[in-house]
Each structure stands twice: as structure tokens, then as C-alpha cells.
Design a protein that fits this description.
This protein is of the alpha+beta class and 449 residues long. The chain has eleven helices and 13 strands. Bound molecules: adenosine-5'-triphosphate and magnesium ion.
């Protein structure tokens, strides 16, 4: 079905008036000229010849009028066609610039128009759809569409209704649709207008919001629980310490005591992580040298590295003069999480390498590389989820990375993880720097372990 109106549709009296008048003028001029010529040159001809001349005059003027009328009508037709083409092109341009997928269809849901956004959304070209029954509506959604069409026909507008549509490749996408109806005219039937918008980003935001709400609630519960557990755990640790100092007469079992202590310490670390996770950090920001925070964090891991006979290589030359507005304690916690993960991941005699680079717009990137196994690609998107851990029960809380990410974000930065081509994992911390260098003298390259 086409939306083009017939070329001579509508009443246009001026057209017929002009045509009639011009035909009369042609007749009048031809007759007068003929009369003049005849009067001047053929006045003495006999009756029969004059009779033939009259007939010739009639035929000639009819032919002239016919030619003129045909030319006039054809010219008008061409002009109209051009106008129509132009207005169609104009209308198509407007339709193609609508950001939503616009589909126009008749009462039998045959597509009359299909704009570029619809081509992009459904992945079906216009030529394929125009004239076809809508194929984008899943079977179970037809009743919805019919109801919407009926309501739209009664001039009720349906706005932003969330539903599903099928794409050309057989997939399904969530969309928000709005309906309205274009009343019928002499040349075309009533048309249903469907505007559809991809709502995948909207749904993602909604999910994220729900997640945030859930986390906030979980945080509150966690903070309460952690607070209550912290005191008895500290008391248990003290008791363990006391028991160790007063050996039992029968010798007691020191190994069991050590095991109890280890588990209680894990519970305490878990509780402290929970508290860190639940509380929004109260930052005390000040300008500080970024290398200091990284080095302070790295120093904490000397003993664990020594135990694994592993090496830690730090090269912070590039950011040596750089300062950042941050809280030294929280920055240290964030880097500790990353280094601790790296230390946990590396094998015996493994290697951790901390280095950095300066980026445009006063940004620094700090890399914590390790020679561990890296993270399976399917797990990468999950590692920032609170409580996600691949460590055996009792060894990892799964809160480290989510705490580190929160802290980096609080400093206006971004934390990313990626597997290195040569094996192992790279944690990338991008942080905004303060302008102007800090005066520093110490050497920022060292190897220990
Ligand atoms: N450097 C790394 N190499 C390999 N896997 C890693 C690395 N860093 C993190 N991961 C993976 O990400 C998971 C989540 O890390 P996260 O720090 O949040 O928790 P965790 O280390 O398991 O527990 P915790 O931090 O309490 O010790 C880890 O269990 C591990 O599977
Ligand atoms: Mg960790």
C-alpha cells in the first residue's frame, strides 16, 4: 500500500478553467487567422473549395486544441508528480530522523511505513517489510497489539508500554511502545502508528538500581552483624592468647589452639572487611604522593612474599613527582587488596610487578601485574561482586575487590582487571592527579623478596 495520493485528487477548478479558456483562445485565434488569410488570398474561390477549406480549418483548430490540451495536462501531471516526489522525500527524511522505530500499518497490520530506526532496531530492511503483515510481534503479544489498535482508533493514546518485539534474526528485545492513529482520508485507510524504543539500557539501569538498593540493605545488615561479632571475637582471641601463655598441666594441645586462633582471626578479618564494605568511607583527603600509598601497601606483603620466595618489583619512576588528593589510609587499603590478590595468585617463586604510566588529562595508571594463572574470562565480570570468591571456604571473603573498587571510585578513579597476554593478571588503577609536581628525592625503584 502506498501513502501517495492520486495525482489529480481534490478539486482544482482553476486547472479546468485555465484549460477551457486557453482552448477557446486557441480556437478563436485559429479561426480569426484563417478568416483573415481566406479573406485576403482565397476570396474568389468556388463554393466547393471554400467548403473544403472550412473543413480543413475545423480539423486544424481541433488538432491544435488537442495538442495544446494534452501538453497542458501532461505538464500539470509532471509538475504534480514532482511535487509529490518532493513531499514524499521530505516526509521520509523526517520519518528517518525520528530516533524511535516508527511503523505505520493498516487495519490488517500490513506495514505501510518503516523508518531507518526500525531497520536498525529490528534488523529488517524497509523494502522487505512494506506491504507485509507485521512480523516483529511475538505470537503471545498479538492480543496486546490488537487491543492497542482498537484503543488508538478511538483516539486514546497509549504511551511507553513495555513489551517485547522480535528481531529479524529471531531474537527478542524489550521495547517501550507508544500508539496513535492517523484518521482515514479519501485516498488511504486509517493507519496505526507504532513508536518503539529499545529499553535494554533502561532495564540495565533499573537492575543496577535494584542491585544498589539490595547492597545498601545488605550493607546495613552486615554492618550491624559485624559490629556485634567484633567484640566477642576479640575476646576469644584474648582467651586464646591467655591459654597459650598458661600451658595446661597435661601439656595441652598447642596445634589445636593455633588452629582455633587461625579460624578466629579469619572471622575477625571477615568482620572487618564487612564493616569496611558496609560503611561509606569517611575520607580525610589531603594532597599526597601517590607512590607513598603504593609503597606503604607493598611493604605489608614482605613477609608473605618471603614465605613464597616470590619477588616484588616496583617501578614508579613516572609518577614520582605526582600528587593526588586522597586519603592515604584508604588508598593503602585499595592497593593492599590488589597486592594481596596478586600474592595469593602467584605460585612459589612467582613474581609481582608494580609499575605505572602517566596519561593525558592528569591521569596516572598504576598496574599490579602478577605471574599467577589470571582469571577465567567467564569469571572476570563477576569478580567485583561482593562475596564472590574462588578461594576455599575460610580463606577468602570475596569482598576485597568490591572494597578496592569503591575506594578507587571515591578517589575519582577506575579499577579494572585484565588477563595479560603473557599470562597472569593485571589490575589497573586509573586515578586523577593534582596539577603541579611534588618535590621528592627518594628512589622509587626497588626489588625485594
Ligand atoms: N590477581 C589475581 N589472580 C587471579 N585471580 C584473582 C586475582 N585477583 C582476584 N582474583 C579472583 O577474584 C576473586 C575475588 O577477589 P576478592 O579480592 O574480591 O576476594 P578474595 O580475594 O577471594 O577474598 P579476600 O579478598 O577476602 O581474601 C578471587 O577469589 C579470585 O578468584
Ligand atoms: Mg582478595
Amino acid at each position: 500500500m502506498s501513502l501517495k495520493a492520486p495525482i489529480f485528487a481534490g478539486r482544482r477548478p482553476w486547472f479546468f478553467v485555465t484549460l477551457t479558456l486557453s482552448c477557446f483562445t486557441i480556437l478563436a485565434v485559429t479561426f480569426s487567422l484563417w478568416e483573415l488569410v481566406e479573406h485576403h488570398y482565397f476570396r474568389d474561390l468556388n463554393y466547393l473549395t471554400l467548403h473544403y477549406m472550412y473543413i480543413t480549418r475545423g480539423v486544424t483548430s481541433s488538432i491544435l486544441v488537442g495538442i495544446w490540451a494534452t501538453w497542458f495536462v501532461l505538464r500539470e501531471r509532471r509538475r504534480r508528480e514532482e511535487q509529490l516526489e518532493e513531499s514524499c522525500a521530505h516526509y521520509r527524511t523526517i520519518l528517518d530522523h525520528v530516533p524511535e522505530a516508527v511503523v505505520l500499518c493498516d487495519a490488517g497490520f500490513r506495514v505501510a511505513e518503516w523508518n531507518e530506526a526500525a531497520e536498525r532496531l529490528y534488523g529488517v530492511p524497509r523494502q522487505q517489510m512494506v506491504g507485509q503483515v507485521l512480523t516483529t510481534v511475538p505470537l503471545e503479544r498479538w492480543s496486546e497489539l490488537e487491543e492497542a489498535a482498537a484503543r488508538a482508533a478511538e483516539d486514546q493514546r497509549i504511551l511507553d508500554k513495555e513489551t517485547e518485539r522480535r528481531t529479524g534474526d529471531g531474537g527478542r528485545i524489550p521495547v517501550a511502545v507508544s500508539y496513535s492513529s492517523i484518521p482515514p482520508s479519501d485516498s488511504r485507510p486509517r493507519l496505526l502508528v507504532e513508536l518503539a524504543q529499545d529499553i535494554r539500557p533502561r532495564l540495565r539501569d533499573r537492575e543496577r538500581l535494584l542491585e544498589v538498593e539490595k547492597l545498601a540493605l545488605m550493607g546495613q545488615i552486615a554492618a550491624g552483624t559485624a559490629h556485634h561479632l567484633n567484640t566477642p571475637l576479640t575476646a576469644v582471641l584474648l582467651q586464646v592468647e591467655l591459654l597459650r601463655q598458661q600451658p595446661a598441666p597435661d601439656g595441652g594441645n598447642m596445634t589445636e589452639l593455633a588452629a582455633i586462633e587461625q579460624r578466629v582471626r579469619f572471622c575477625q578479618a571477615f568482620v572487618q572487611n564487612l564493616l569496611r564494605f558496609a560503611r561509606r568511607p569517611q575520607m580525610r583527603r589531603k594532597p599526597l604522593a601517590l607512590c607513598d600509598a603504593i609503597e606503604a601497601a607493598a611493604t605489608l606483603f614482605r613477609p608473605s612474599l618471603a614465605l613464597k620466595m616470590a619477588s616484588l618489583h616496583i617501578d614508579l619512576h613516572e609518577i614520582l613527582p605526582c600528587r593526588i588528593l586522597g586519603d592515604p589510609n584508604y588508598l593503602e587499603v585499595a592497593f593492599s587488596v590488589l597486592i594481596s590478590n596478586a600474592v595469593d595468585a602467584i605460585p612459589r617463586e612467582g613474581r609481582v610487578y608494580i609499575h605505572c604510566s602517566l596519561k593525558a588529562d592528569h591521569q596516572a595508571e598504576v598496574y599490579v601485574d602478577d605471574s599467577g594463572p589470571g582469571i577465567a574470562n567467564e569469571l572476570l565480570p563477576r569478580v567485583f561482586e561482593p562475596f564472590f570468591t574462588t578461594k576455599p571456604a575460610g580463606q577468602g571473603t570475596g569482598l576485597g575487590l568490591s572494597i578496592a573498587r569503591n575506594l578507587v571510585q571515591e578517589h575519582g578513579g577506575v579499577l579494572q582487571l585484565q588477563n595479560r597476554e603473557r599470562g597472569g593478571l593485571r589490575a589497573i588503577v586509573s586515578l586523577p592527579l593534582l596539577e603541579g609536581p611534588a618535590a621528592r628525592e627518594s628512589r622509587r625503584e626497588e626489588v625485594f623478596g
